[in-house]
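Fig. S4 source data, part A: sequence.
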Amino acid sequence: QVQLVESGGGLVQAGGSLRLSCAASGRMPSSYTMGWFRQAPGKEREFVAAISWTTVSWTNINTRYADSVKGRFTISRDSAKNTVYLQMNSLKPEDTAVYYCNPTVGTRPTGSWGQGTQVTVSS
C-alpha cells in the first residue's frame, strides 16, 4: 500500500506562487495516476489535477487539469524521489483550500486521505 504525505502549503498573496509536494512511499503499481484535490471551507472536495505514468515507460506521461486551474497550475513528478508536485502560479483567493494528493482513476480519488496541506491566498 502506498503512503502519501503532502507538504508545501502556506500563506501567499494573490498573484503569488507555491509548490506542493506529495511524497509517496511503499510499492507503486506499474501504471499509476496521482491526483491533487482540494477542499475549501464549506465546500466539497474537488479535483484539481492528475498525472498518469507507467513504470514501463517513464516518458509516457499524461496530465489533466480542472478548468479553474488550467494555465496556472502544473503537475509533475520526480521518479527518483517518488514525489508528485503541484506548481501553483497566479494564485487567487478562491484557490484557498486544504490540498490533498490521492491515487486517482480519471478524476476520482481511490485511496485514503492524508492530512493535506493548507493553502491560503490573501487578496
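Fig. S4 source data, part B ends here. The first strand starts at residue 3 and ends at 7.
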